Amino acid sequence: MHLHDETLVRDIARTAQQLRIDVLKMVYGAKSGHLGGPFSAAEIVASLYFHHLRIDPARPDWAERDRFILSKGHASPVLYAALARRGFFPVDELSTFRQLDSRLHGHPERIVPGVEVVAGPLGHGVAIGAGMALAARMGGSKPSAMSAPSGRASAFRVYALLGDGETNAGVIWEGVMTAAKYRLGNLVAIVDDNGIQQTGATADVMPMEPMIDKWRAFGLARPGNPWPQRQGDPRRPGPGGRHPRAAERDHRAHDQGSGRGIHGVRQPLARRTP
Ligand SMILES: Cc1ncc(C[n+]2csc(CCOP(=O)(O)OP(=O)(O)O)c2C)c(N)n1
Ligand SMILES: [Mg+2]
Hints:
Elements: H1 6-30, H2 36-40, H3 42-52, E1 67-70, H4 76-85, H5 125-137, E2 158-163, H6 170-181, E3 187-192, E4 196-197, E5 200-201, H7 202-205, H8 211-220, E6 229-230, E7 245-248
Parallel strand pairs: 1-2, 2-3
Antiparallel strand pairs: 3-7, 4-5, 6-7
């Protein structure tokens, strides 16, 4: 079983704490906004933005960049914090969160450098991601390039972060079926399984268990590719840890077993540079 390097785990934990501090200041400063959704996603976002995504803050519109979709758009503060700390815009701007005339709205919009997708109404990340992943595989970098010659290697990968409550939405599963139909190995869906949603525990509002079986039933597992898998929490590794779910329909990742870390962001773990 492949485990994270301890230094990497510590680095992710440190970055995640920095993001949480930023989030707290932003929401406290605005006296408005979500805290729980951004907090629970901090390690996932830190792992992606500081160790995995192939992005270049100096070129937010670089055609071959990886795309990150914050499908649970109410967690925008953690995305803004990551983008600022990664150099997409000044950290000072974070203090304008939810102020009049700020570009840092309560839900992300594409006026912010690095934001790929407008989000807020839950449920759309996988379907949008499937479209982007399909475009990437067809050789295009944007939807208008869908007519580009097919059969070329994917220029980029697409990551969609969902809430566990969000998976109550039927449109999520339409997106999953689409991804399965087109065998989109360049699309990664990550579920932040924090057990809670707006009006209570996810298990009470609309139980999703067995979650993993649902993803499989919608076509994302087949012989030789045992995705999706349950992964442990990088903050609390081991059997007693909380288990955020992460899933990747990616043949390159199929050999990863349960353990610490986040499926799909464990290999390669070195920072990928443009
Ligand atoms: C379609 C839609 N319905 C309702 C809401 C209101 N809403 C905002 S946050 C939230 C809870 C989401 O819970 P979850 O997906 O588990 O996210 P997290 O726990 O990570 O905050 C809801 C229902 C929304 N944004 N979009
Ligand atoms: Mg939740």
